[in-house]
Amino acid sequence: MDNSNNKPHIDSEFQEVWDKAGEYTYSFESSNDQAWEKFQAGLKQADTPKPFSIWKNTQQIWRVAAAITLLAIGGWAFWYNQQKTAILDQGNFATVNQQVKQITLKDGSTITLNSNSTVKYILTKNSRNIELQGMAHFEVAKNPNAPFTIKSGNNQVTVLGTGFDVRSYNNKPLQVSVNHGKVRVEKLATHSGTLLESAILTKGMRATENPHPKTKQESIFTVESNINIDAVQWREGTLSFNDAPLADVINAVEERYNVQIEIIGNAPKGLRNNQQPTLTAEFNNNQTVDAVCAVISKALEIPLTVVK
User: Fold this and answer.
1) Given CB 3.0 to 4.6 Å as the disulfide criterion, which of 73, 150, 191, 248 pairs with 130?
2) How far apart are CA 92 and CA 157, in angstroms?
3) For the chain, which residues make up each domain, given as ranges?
4) What is the DSSP string of the chain?
5) pLDDT (tens digit per residue) in 50-84
6) CB-CB contact of 151 with 112 (8 Å)
7) Domain 232-307 falls in which CATH fold?
């Protein structure tokens, strides 16, 4: 078989196929080119520096600073309030018949508690609050930043530094006597706490409550000046009278022994004319209330009886 005539024809067909194959671009090659172009574009974008904004960064700094400042102020306010209300000293004391107790507070103030009395106190940085039932003498350490306030029922006594007596027994009117310094006595409304009346007392003055004013114009407190502040002494344990009016004598004995004392029969002529006799005497804790009343009756020629 002679193949010489067919060979040129086969070569020309193969060449044509080969040339066409060289001109063809495969699909995956096209995709790779696109991917490479995207990759190159991403690199260029990453290399491009972002513009710097002073205003934007300053705003961020101020926001952080403001947050830190608010946090610091809040922490300080919390600490300060805790300091103001933190209890520095507190106590609760009571006495019985013929007992006198002296209490020294951490601020240097002293409370001398008379017989049959109770006192409760709480001291903070900005306040010194005392609740009293009965009678006590106060020597108050000066502290203008922490008023010394005594409450008894709806009566209130406020002082910054002074010495005074407060009597507030059950069924007896409030009485405040000032030895030295200045105090303010206030009557507050029972439910609302509204101030009804106040009085300023200085050395040698005494305010006595009128618990049942007959008219709105009648004063709640009767204020006396130049009183004998040494008329009744009880703080050393003994009961001493120095030219003390009979009414003060009877009150002092009643408070010491927790009794009621009455005058037998009709009041003497002097008492009916508001001329009270006075007593100078001293009684110790070993004497009974009957013995004390017997001495008073004999000295003043006024018969007394004890209602126990």
Assistant:
1) 150
2) 19
3) 89-224, 232-307
4) ---TTTHHHHHHHHHHHHHHHHH---HHHHHHHHHHHHHHHHHHHHHSPPPP-HHHHHHHHHHHHHHHHHHHHHHHHHHHHHHHHS--EEEEEE--TT--EEEE-TTS-EEEE-TT-EEEEEE-SS-EEEEEEEEEEEEPPP-TTS-EEEEETTEEEEESS-EEEEEE-TTS--EEEEEESEEEEEEE-TTT--EEEEEEEETT-EEEE-SS-SSTTS-SEEEE-S--TTSEE-TTSSEEEEEEEHHHHHHHHHHHHT-EEEE-SSPPHHHHTT---EEEEEE-TTS-HHHHHHHHHHHHT--EEEE-
5) 555 555 567 777 777 777 887 777 766 665 565 55
6) no
7) Phage tail protein beta-alpha-beta fold (3.55.50)
Count how many residues are written for the chain.
308
List the CATH code of the domain at 89-224.
2.60.120.1440
